[in-house]
Amino acid sequence: MFSAFLSSVDRSKLPYMVHDDHSKPKDLLLLLDQETLPFDQFARLLSPSARPLLPYLQRKAHEKTLQQFGQTMQLYVPFYLSNECTNQCTYCGFNENLHIKRKTLSSEEQAAGFSCLRSLGFDHILLLTGEAPLVAGSDYLEKSIRLAKTYFNQVSLEIFPCDTPEYARLAASGASGLSLYQETYQEGAYGEAHPHGPKNNYTYRLDSADRALSAGFKKMGLGCLLGLSDWRLDIALCVLHMVYLQKKYWRAELSMSFPRLRANQQRYPVSDHDLHQIICAVRIFLPTINLVLSTRESSSLRDTLIHSGITMISAGSKTNPGGYSDIVSSSQFDISDH
Predict the structure, then answer these.
(1) What contacts 112, CB < 8 A, 6 or more positions away?
(2) pLDDT by residue (tens digit) across 111-145?
(3) Among residues 201, 251, 332, 336, which is most buried (max CB within 10 A)?
């Protein structure tokens, strides 16, 4: 399990590597000439010293993207099944304590939304829920997956963490991919952001990718919510998680996402330049995985980042249950790319 692996890693030097202001730009440029980078050298590409080198990072990231993926872009569409939740995440629109319009879609309502999206040409759908197993648990999800498979070739999930038998059941129902974001890899900050509810269990969430991949999922997406805590440390630890999965589950198709809190929600600011630097550095270090951008970001920034390593984007997104068929319910967050 990744939690055991992480506890065995000496992380004492990591803060210095990602925050080092003493590297010379010419030394960092030499890193871009290497075919592969060790993890400690990748971490230096996240440092403030690498900020002025963004044009060079972008050029290298674009080159590696073309080598691996060509000029292609995968599209997927998120579909919220339910906004019921028993968590109290401080940043989330589905927080249990918020007085919002709650909704869990029936099979008939799901079918109406699926039909609408299929008519637009989408063939990859991502089903999402809050964490309310009594309302939208495994039985509900299994039924929803089977229904979605009658419309779409690829069905992925972004749901609450499950035990291995539950994951096996969902994979057997037709779900091939799972996105599961740790939000932040720094345990203290994680506890502050998730004060109450089942999501408060940091280690259980940390090991969810292991359970899902061992249970039969073929695709796994990782990420952290940028702005919750020190983004340089979070990205470095998320990449370390990705390296672990690549070695242990080498048949799996892996991806990494970069969701970012809105500026007024960020405890640790993440600028557009920072996000650009992150994506370029990750692409240079991990040239074979999909890098994902959501509609949290503006269309103008999206148009820049698709030339810097992004290979998957969501499109036409609605973040409330029934949004594609005009059902009234509350959204998880506001999108920026319309």
Answers:
(1) 325
(2) 999 999 999 999 999 999 999 999 999 999 999 99
(3) 332
Q: Using an 8 Å Cβ cutoff, are 177 and 221 in contact? A: yes
Which amino acid is located at 299 in the chain? S
**Strand pairing partners for 222?**
256
Q: 3-state DSSP call for residue 211?
A: helix
Q: Which residues of 20-30 are buried (b: 16+ CB within 10 A; e: fewer)?
A: beebeeeebee
d(CA 264, CA 276): 19
User: Is 230 strand, coil or helix?
Assistant: coil
Residues 6 or more apart whose Cβ sits within 8 Å of residue 196 = 87, 88, 96
Q: Residue 84 and residue 75: Cα distance in Å, rounded?
A: 27
Instruction: Provide the β-strand partners of residue 219.
Output: 177, 253
Please name the helix (run of DSSP H) or strand (run of DSSP E) that holds residue 115, with its range, or none: helix 107-119
Distance of CA 214 to CAs 1, 142, 250, 255, 259, Å?
Answer: 11, 18, 12, 17, 26
**For the chain, percent helix, then strand, then coil, each to nearest 5?**
45, 15, 40
Backbone φ and ψ for 266, nearest 5 degrees, come out as -75, 125
Site of tokens 């399990």? 1
- Mark 101-135 as b/e (b = at least 16 C-beta within 10 Å): ebbbbeeebbbbbbeebbeeebebbbbbbbbbbee
pLDDT digits (tens, 9 = 90+) for 62-112: 999 999 999 999 999 999 999 999 999 999 989 999 999 999 999 999 999
C-alpha span between 275 and 265 (Å, rounded): 16
Helix (H) or strand (E) holding 274: helix 272-285
- Please name the residues in contact with 109: beta carbons below 8 A apart, sequence gap of 6 or more: 322, 325, 327
Give φ, ψ of 312 to 5 degrees: -140, 135
Amino acid at 289: I
